[in-house]
From TrEMBL:
Keywords: Ion channel, Ion transport, Membrane, Potassium, Potassium channel, Potassium transport, Transmembrane, Transmembrane helix, Transport, Voltage-gated channel. InterPro entries: BTB/POZ_dom (IPR000210), Ion_trans_dom (IPR005821), K_chnl_volt-dep_Kv (IPR003968), K_chnl_volt-dep_Kv4 (IPR003975), K_chnl_volt-dep_Kv4_C (IPR024587), Shal-type_N (IPR021645), SKP1/BTB/POZ_sf (IPR011333), T1-type_BTB (IPR003131). Its main location: membrane. The lineage of its organism: Eukaryota, Metazoa, Ecdysozoa, Arthropoda, Hexapoda. It is found in: Membrane. Residues 41-140 form the BTB domain. GO terms for molecular function: A-type (transient outward) potassium channel activity. The chain crosses the membrane at residues 183-204, 224-245, 257-279, 324-345, 357-373, 385-406. This is Potassium voltage-gated channel protein Shal isoform X4. One of its GO terms (biological process) is action potential. One of its GO terms (cellular component) is voltage-gated potassium channel complex.
Length: 493
């Protein structure tokens, strides 16, 4: 013990460069006998050619796992005197680190499914992942589950299509994926063109086009060129009606199609036209149905069929329903509170616009959303202070849920991008399989006929050529493999 203490000053001085390092090695540090364990030994673990060394006691910290229990002896190699595992060595590094430190980390660059399989093989639960990595692991797990659910739903939809007739099946696939054929692509662009024309006509018909004859005021283009806009609206409605009826005819589940959001939008967009046809100008109830023309603006939502961004925005709003509800609820509470305080702060002011608490709602809404029209302005010092606090509170209340909505939009957008990429990859793979199958199809038919002829000859007692028989078996297995790949890759449209 004294010799070690004598070496310590020199070792510390050599470490910082005060004196040269000694040529003789330092004596080993003393280890008390009570700390030594006779059963502790160094184990060598070979994972797919990469060797890891650790202590037995390190592995036995977790006896419920594979390496910590006696089950590891099934993987012991007597010749090399090591434990051999035919697993992923990169992921095993993190598993062994869990035995050493008690903290399991998730490598972001590794495949989630492969990581879970390695943990399941070594008997480690994913719940022990450290707090530093658990959020990333949970997000990847959720994205993977959503991706698998989308693939399952798409496969379920494809499996339901063969139950339809060939015409309905082709029509529905053309409506859902316009790039399947030239006719579907033409119909896709024609409907998009008429949607744009309908929306533009709805806007242009309100533009002033001269003065009213014998009356004050301007005459809108919709009344001046009534016949032109009526014919244009009729053409657009005919296209929309034909599209809706064709989709209804080709839908796999018509009841589900009628209840869908896009179907309701289509009906609301074309319904005012047919109601207007049955109402005359002299009818007393015609004024009540004039307001139905405002529903023509819903035709702009038909663009969501043609725009992936609009669909992603709709999915984002749907997934952020709780955050949007929190935003509306918090805004409503703040509006009521500040409107009440503002009313009592401006109550004794002459010619004030804050005549009641509901009248102050408009001021608090405009202030909290940072619009500031200036039509209602507080006159007292207390009212100005309340207005300033109201504007700052509005900024905070609105800014808090916005990052959550943005992150959800980014997540859904990337999911759709990955889904489109997977569909393109499956389509390309299916094309390659079909090319390989077509090139070997003719040869396979001839080889099959030759095999049948040789089989018949064998039954009659004639000896067969072994080389030819092996070639036929190879061709048969090759063709069978191509068919299996085609079935498991993607159903042909």
């Amino acid at each position: 013990m004294a010799s070690v203490a004598a070496w310590l000053p020199f070792a510390r001085a050599a470490a910082i460069g005060w004196v040269p390092i000694a040529t003789h090695p330092l004596p080993p540090p003393p280890v008390p006998k009570d700390r030594r364990r006779a059963e502790d030994e160094k184990l060598l673990i070979n994972v797919s050619g990469r060797r890891f060394e650790t202590w037995r006691n390190t592995l036995e910290k977790y006896p419920d796992s594979l390496l910590g229990s006696t089950e590891r002896e099934f993987f012991y190699d007597e010749d090399s005197r090591e434990y051999f595992f035919d697993r992923d060595p990169d992921i095993f590094r993190h598993i062994l680190n869990y035995y050493r430190t008690g903290k399991l980390h998730y490598p972001k660059h590794e495949c989630l499914t492969g990581y879970d399989e390695e943990l399941a093989f070594f008997g480690i639960l994913p719940d022990v992942i450290g707090d530093c990595c658990y959020e990333d692991y949970r997000d990847r797990k959720r994205e993977n589950a959503e991706r698998l659910m989308d693939d399952k739903l798409s496969e379920a939809g494809d499996q339901s299509l063969p139950q339809l007739t060939d015409l309905r099946q082709k029509m529905w696939r053309a409506f859902e994926n316009p790039h399947t054929s030239t006719a579907a692509l033409v119909f896709y662009y024609v409907t998009g063109f008429f949607i744009a024309v309908s929306v533009m006509a709805n806007v242009v018909e309100t533009v002033p086009c001269g003065h009213r004859p014998g009356r004050a005021g301007t005459l809108p283009c919709g009344e001046r060129y009534k016949i032109v806009f009526f014919c244009l609206d009729t053409a657009c409605v005919m296209i929309f009606t034909a599209e809706y009826l064709l989709r209804l005819f080709a839908a796999p589940d018509r009841c589900k199609f009628v209840r869908s959001v896009m179907s309701i939008i289509d009906v609301v967009a074309i319904l005012p036209y047919y109601i207007g046809l049955g109402i005359t100008d002299n009818d007393d109830v015609s004024g009540a149905f004039v307001t139905l023309r405002v529903f023509r603006v819903f035709r702009i939502f038909k663009f969501s069929r043609h725009s992936q961004g609009l669909r992603i925005l709709g999915y984002t709003l749907k997934s952020c329903a709780s955050e949007l509800g929190f935003l509306v609820f918090s805004l409503a509470m703040a509006i009521i509170i500040f409107a009440t305080v503002m009313f009592y702060a401006e109550k004794n002011e002459q010619d004030t616009n804050f005549t009641s608490i509901p009248a102050a709602f408009w001021y608090t809404i405009v202030t909290m959303t940072t619009l500031g029209y200036g039509d209602m302005v507080p006159g007292t010092i207390a009212g100005k202070i309340v207005g300033g606090v109201c504007s700052l509170s509005g900024v905070l209340v609105i800014a808090l849920p916005v990052p959550v909505i943005v992150s959800n939009f980014s997540r859904i957008y990337h999911q759709n991008q990955r889904a489109d990429k997977r569909k393109a990859q499956r389509k390309a793979r299916l094309a390659r399989i079909r090319i390989a199958k077509a090139s070997s199809g003719a040869a396979f038919v001839s080889k099959k006929k030759a095999a049948e002829a040789r089989l018949a000859a064998q039954e009659s007692g004639v000896e067969l050529d072994d080389a030819g028989r092996d070639e036929d078996i190879f061709e048969l297995q090759h063709h069978h493999l191509l068919r299996c790949l085609e079935r498991t890759t993607y159903k042909s449209p």
